[in-house]
Structure formats: structure tokens, C-alpha cells
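Q: What would this chain look like folded?
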Amino acid sequence: MKIVLANPRGFCAGVERAVQIVERALQKFGRPLYVRHEIVHNKAVVDELRAKGVRFVDDLDEVPEGSVVVFSAHGVPESVYAQAEAKRLVVIDAACPLVKKVHNSAKRHDAENRTVILIGHAGHPEVVGTMGQIKGKMLLVATPEDVARLEVPEGAQLAYITQTTFSVNETRATIDALRARFPDIIGPQRGDTCYATTNRQQAVEQLCARIDLLLVVGSANSSNSMRLKEMGRALGVKSYLVDGPEEIHDSWFEGAERVGISSGASAPEHIVQDVIAQLRAKYPVESVEELTTLNENIHFALPEILREERE
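A: My prediction, written as C-alpha cells:
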């Protein structure tokens, strides 16, 4: 068996920043530290932080007044900030700067009296947060078929924004459908898909030309991880999503000589290495090589409340 690793893979700058925010906040404020929703969508990351004293809550009603609370990397609706202020909470916002950029676009379009259309998956925390940025109604679509069924106010000026972790190909197809039906609509030509989502999907696309089987390390509630698995299957490669080596099944590897491995933007590298170790232990692995499509060198600054003097 030969193992080929996609590069880039794993933590993006937004996830790295969010995890670092929680760890720095623990050092500065101590326990308990509250985090609204999972800081990122990865079971291993959440379990590791919980073991350090982080309390993950679904709602701010579970947070005592005056406590320190971190908002997740996915962003939150404006109403959550108001609720936090009413409870006198110390808020540390770990929302990815690229998600905040989409929020600002929504607010700008709303201020210009445009009806905002969001391309994304209903119920995803990022989508919930983005739809809660404006007081006016935001419309949600996910596919070209949704665009065909869309009902918009007569004579409305339209603008679109997109979920940052949406599939590149899905985003492109839905934007094309919006532009075909509403020629005057405005929005980013390629959507708001973040660099990490784009880079990891491109890496998997190239990887799939060289492998028989694809393993994507990531959690099932991670949108970008799911898209990588779906991309592999769309390219005709047997593809599976695993949280770790314990979820791997022997039956997957029948006839597989070249195994590709990638990981979602919220999956830690040590889990990838655990998967490789498992394969080495069970199969005659001839080599492990990396297929590098590009090198990422992007970093986001921490919130001022957590910066050290040397920063």
C-alpha cells in the first residue's frame, strides 16, 4: 500500500486562531471558561478543551452573569451579542475574520436597501449567524433548483453572499443560476468561499487522480470535511469520513493499493498521524508521501484582550 497525503490539509488560520483564543482565555481567566456552541466542528478538539476545563453551552442562559464567554469560530447572530450585554458577560469573539467579512457584506447590502440572498446550508451555525446580522429578511438557497423556486419582492434590488465552507462547485453553480435569473444581482463573482475550503478541495481533486481510496479526517458536523468526502465520491473514488482511526473498517481497503488522506479545516494533524499509524500497523505500507498543491502561510491576529505585550 502507498499512502498519499493531501497538502494543504487540516487546521486553517481561522480554526488555529479560535483554538488559541480558548487556550489563552483559560490561561488568563481560569476555569470555568464558557464557550457558546462547539468552538470548531471537531470532536477531538472539543473533547481536549473540555478536559482542560472548558464548558460548552448551547445557550447563554446556561452562563452565569458576569462570566467570561467565547463565541465560536462560526459567528453568532447580533441578538446573541445583545443577550451577552444584558447579562454583563465578558465576550471574546473567536469568529473567523473571513466569516466576519461576510457579515459586514450583509450589513452593507441591507443598509443599501438590497434584499440579501445567502447561499448556504440551512441550520449550519455559520448560516444561522450570518442570517442574524440584519433586521430585514434574508433569503437562503443551496442549489440552482432553490434559485428557480425563489420568491423575491417585486422590483427588489438583490445581492448575494455565501457560506465560507460551501463547496466551490456548488457555490459556482448556484451563483450562475442567480445571475441567469436576476441579471442585475450583485455579489462576489466567486462567492465568499474561504481560501482554506478552496485550497483543500483543489488538493483533494488532484489527489483523487492518483488514488483508489480516500480517507477524510474530520467530524460529520464539519461542513468543509463533508464536502471533501463528497468531492472524492463525485470523482469516482471510494471516500470515507472518519473522526479517527477507530472508525476505519478493513472492508474499505480490499483492492486498494493507493490510499489518499486529507483532513478538514477543523481536524488536528495528530489525528491524521494516528490514522497513518493505524494503517502501518495493519497493512504493508510501502511509502507515505505528500502531494503538495500549494503552501499556506496565513495567520490571523488574536483579539486585543488576549494579546501579549510582545505582540
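The domain at 13-96 is CATH 3.40.50.11270 (Rossmann fold).
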